[in-house]
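Hi support team,

I've been running sequence recovery on a batch of backbones for a student project. Most finish fine, but this one hangs at about 90% for roughly twenty minutes before it completes. I'm not sure whether the input is malformed or the queue is just slow. I've pasted the structure tokens below so you can try to reproduce it. Let me know if you need the job ID as well.

Thanks,
M.K.
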């Protein structure tokens, strides 16, 4: 069921139905509250999940991008960032220390809205 289409060059992002209870499962896994969740597929076969989550650092956006057989490309990751985050939001990919690392999907990358504005020096 297509609801939204974003197009940049050859990349597309099509919104699909989010499974019932998915937000609850996501919240339980993340250890916070999920205010809103949307699921998309890209024209290149990636699955994208976009959520607004409340946790330790406040209410922030979180998005993940995964492909069944390969890592998403940098072009796909930056397309997701441009499509789902505002231009004035700083967004980060985190590589946590080993004790906090979780790998549920082998080909998945996550982007988080920064809880503060990044100051460049």
């Amino acid at each position: 069921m297509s609801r939204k289409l974003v197009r940049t060059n050859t990349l597309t992002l099509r919104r699909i139905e989010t499974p019932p209870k998915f937000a609850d499962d996501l919240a339980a896994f993340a250890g916070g509250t999920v205010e809103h969740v949307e699921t998309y597929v890209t024209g290149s076969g990636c699955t994208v999940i976009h959520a607004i989550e409340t946790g330790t650092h406040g209410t922030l956006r979180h998005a993940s991008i995964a492909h069944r057989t390969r890592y998403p490309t940098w072009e796909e990751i930056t397309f997701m960032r441009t499509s789902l985050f505002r231009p004035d939001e700083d967004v980060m990919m985190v590589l946590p220390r080993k004790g906090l690392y979780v790998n549920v999907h082998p080909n998945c990358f996550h982007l988080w809205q920064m809880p503060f504005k990044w100051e460049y020096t």
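--
Follow-up from support: It reproduced on our side and the slowdown came from queue contention, not your input. The chain has a mean pLDDT of 82. No action needed from you.
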